[in-house]
Predict the 3D structure of the following.
Amino acid sequence: GAAAAAAVKEAPKRWLAFEEVGVTEPLLFWDPLGICPKEEKVFSEFRACELKHGRVAMMAALGAVVQHFIRFPGFDRDNFGEPLPAGLAAIPNTPASFGFTVLLSIAAFLELFLWSEDFPKKEAGNFGDPLGLNQYTRDMRDRELNNGRFAMFAAAGILAGELATGKDAVQQLGF
């Protein structure tokens, strides 16, 4: 009797995906195809990917708008003195192709060598509170996930619209 009660008391808490950060209104836990991993370790890896993609998409969507108005010095004209186009149309032109290569190289270095996940010690995407703002709360983590999810659709829409129309993010809005 007493040994069985002690074993039940010491049983580890069962992990449930629908109790994780990111389960918010209005969809709550939404997995209509049943592809959510059943193991916590695999779920953490997927969540880390979701956070990284969301963070990149937030920067990409913002950058797609900002680069219409602001250019780095030396990136306003191509090698032939012609105005450098904005958006994806700039990539095949020099110096934009060089800048794109440098950007990808820096991102690859950071991803492969500097920013690594340590799932047994910290949850996915937890790189601490570098600015000391004390905003690493459940609410802020939910907001980051939801904003990242929205930004992934926004960035994909901006890129698809640019490929279809040849207009950058701001021009697509009619400005």
